[in-house]
Every structure is written in structure tokens, then in C-alpha cells.
Amino acid sequence: MRAFLAAAFSLALAIPATAGVTIDEFKTDGGLTVWHVQEDSIPFVALELRFQGGASLDAEGKRGAINLMTGLIEEGAAELDARAFAKARDGLAASFSYAVYDDTLSVSAKFLTENRDEALELLRQSLTSPRFDQDAIDRVRAQVISGIRSDEKDPSSIAGQAFDARVYGTHPYGTDRSGTVDSVTALTRDDILAAFQSTVVRDRIYISVVGDISREDLGPVLDTLLADLPETGAPLPPAASPVFDGETVVIPFETPQSVAMFGQPGVPFDHPDYFAAYLLNVVLGGGGFESRLMQEVREKRGLTYGVYSYLVDKDGADVWLGSVQSANNRIGEAMEVIKAEWARMQSEGVTETELEDAKRYLTGSYPLRFDGNGPIADILVGMQMQGMGTDYIATRNDRVNAVTLEQINRVAREFLKPEQLSFTVVGQPEGL
After folding, report:
1. Which of 84, 314, 333, 335 could form a disulfide with 80 if both were Cys (CB 3.0 to 4.6 A apart)?
2. Which part of the chain has CATH 3.30.830.10?
């Protein structure tokens, strides 16, 4: 059975990239909205569930509760303890995974058509009757605390957390979703139950399914799977108010290389200029070795192995971030080059050649994402959460290609904010 599942996964990866990804959007009799792609070539189904809110729904004083709870969902359900649950799942050659992020809790399931009913019943039990046994709580808590302690010694983790705290302040985005050693140590089973009940709920669920199942079969299956979830959960947090003061903050840490996180305000995905901003970022720092930052900081001056920038679209904030690592005696120079390139792009914009190269980079790489049932299901559920239409896959490259040189250079002038570009540096930087 496991060998057959492995073969099914391999076949799924062999499906042509965007060969007829036809999305069927419908509502089940139980009122659930579903995005569905029927793919009957192999007897295999990928299911993706997303619950909006994620770790940002942690109750006050309980930071890390939702992260710990997520790690415990598959540690036994209903009559099955952790070992029995894992044995039942593996016996069905099914795959379940649970993960939490700032704004979402994700549940991914992959299973064979012949085992569909049994696999979904096991998944249902994990979503409606998780055991949260004390021995499992203690074991997973120890793993989480070990990860937190490891992050306390990692310059990149320190920089990221310090940068978030500085930018987001008291908003949940400003603290690490794993919590602290103290906050996680203090969590009780009641706290974990409360976290589960506030997060895994029907009124903020997004669903996509790709594979060997018809719409007629899928609707009743999903209604059964999710019928017993609570209707509503904890209220979503308010939007954040990111602060970028244009200053550099240094956090001393004994390491031969300094790590710098930097950023400025971003661009919302639903903004009319988003695709122009996205292309602008490809030219600036998101296009690999051909980006300006990589060329100026790495290729010409040898100041780093890598420097990157990227747009981040959170539910409660839109930011434009970047990162770089360099030797303590060279990080200052690397930062000055980044600032200069940020300002130069804001004032001079991009060239026609740079724009066309960025378009080819984005449009050429896009079909490669659709490399199987699982990745397609993951993309579809993400599209729903960002408010895209079912035509987005077909029109995305057209939107990229529609950006003109005039538009992208106007966006550079309006959205790049060199005076607000803020740095948080962890290490022993010389001259900062």
C-alpha cells in the first residue's frame, strides 16, 4: 500500500504543469464553499483546509498556545492514542499534516481513492476529537521549547524577532508564534483546548480539493468531515500599524557574521499597482542572481553570499522586507549599498530590458508551480484566501505582461521609501 502511494505521488508530480486546471467553485449542501479540480488520471486525492486567524488568535498571556495545539492535533484522536493514530494513518497509506502561521492554520491530507472513506474518517476525528493527552502535551511541549532555545542562539532568528517587535509593537505579529520558554511552560491542557476551539471553526474555513473525486461525491464528504466543527471562534485581531522609522538598531551578539533585516511599507495584493510592485521587486532583490541588490552587493563587491527582498502580504499588514548577512567588518558597507540601490531605483526606475527580463522570469517560472495534485490544491486555497477569482491562473501572466515601463517607474517613485528603510542588525558590526 505504501509503495503504491509513493508511486501515486510520483505520477501526480508528472501531471503537465497547467494542463487544463479547470476550477469548479461550488457550495455544499452544508454551506461550505469549495474549489475543486477533478483529476481522474490516478486514484489519488489532495485536500487542503485553511482556517483564517492562525497564531494571531492566541489569547492574551497565552502566546504559543495555538502553535503547541497544532503540533498536538495528530497526537491521537477519539479512541486512538498517538501511536494507534499514526498506525491507522500509515496503514491507510494516507498523509496528514498540520501547520500554523501568523494568519492561518493549515491542514493538508493526501489519500488513495480506495481508502478515501477511512482516511477522511480518521482526519475527521483529528479535527473534532483530538485527545490532547498529557504525555503527548509534555512531549511536544519539550520539542517546542527546544526549538525556542535554539532560536535564542541563532542570529537570523534573533534578527527576525527583534525586527518584528520593533515594526509591529504589541500586535500579535510583533512576537514569535512559538511563544517564549516561560509562556509555553505555563500552558495547561485547558489552554490548549481553548486554543483549538477558538481556531478550528467553520466560519473562517477555506477548502480546495484536487484529484480523483467528483463534485457529486465531494460535497457530502466535506459536509460529513466538517459538520461537527464549532461555527465561530475567537474574533480576528485588528490590523497592525507597522512602523518604519528609517533608523538602524544593533543587537550585540557574538558571531563572526552580522545578520541584517530591513524593510519599509509594502503594497496590498488587491492594489491596482501590485503587479507593477511585484515586478519592481524582482528587479530590485527578488530575481535571484540577476537582481540589482545581488549584482551590487555580491557580484561586484563580494560583501555577501546572498541578499534578498520580498513583498509580504499579511492579513493585517503589507510590508516590503529584505535580509542580508555579511562579515562584521563589511556589513556596514553592504547596508550602504542596499540603501543606495533602494534610493537609485526610487529616483531612476528600471530599464525596459530589466522589465522584460523580470516578466520572462515571472511568467516562465509560474507554470512550474503546478507540479501535482498537492501543490495545485495548495495554490488554490491560497488564491481563495487572497480573494482571487477562479480565473486567476489563466490571467495571472497576462496581468504581469500588462505592466508598462511608465507604470512600474511611477510605482518606484510612489512606493519605494528610502527614507523609511529600517534596519535591525544582530552581530558585532564594526562602525555601526
Report:
1. 84
2. 2-6+15-226, 248-427
For residue 38, the surrounding DSSP H or E stretch is strand 33-38
- pLDDT tens per residue across all 432 residues of the chain: 344 334 333 333 334 444 468 999 999 999 999 999 999 999 999 999 999 999 999 999 999 999 999 999 999 999 999 999 999 999 999 999 999 999 999 999 999 999 999 999 999 999 999 999 999 999 999 999 999 999 999 999 999 999 999 999 999 999 999 999 999 999 999 999 999 999 999 999 999 999 999 999 999 999 999 999 999 999 999 999 999 999 999 999 999 999 999 999 999 999 999 999 999 999 999 988 999 999 999 999 999 999 999 999 999 999 999 999 999 999 999 999 999 999 999 999 999 999 999 999 999 988 888 888 999 999 999 999 999 999 999 999 999 999 999 999 999 999 999 999 999 999 999 998
Q: Which cell numbers in the block locate residue 289?
A: 542572481
CB atoms within 10 A of CB 68: 25
Among the four given CATH numbers 3.90.79.10, 3.20.20.150, 3.30.830.10, 3.40.50.970, the one describing domain 2-6+15-226: 3.30.830.10
* pTM reported for the whole predicted model: 0.92
Fold of 248-427: Cytochrome Bc1 Complex; Chain A, domain 1 (3.30.830)
**Structure-derived torsion over alpha carbons of residues 59, 65, 71, 77, reported in degrees to the nearest 10:** -80
Instruction: Give the gyration radius of the chain's Cα atoms.
Output: 23
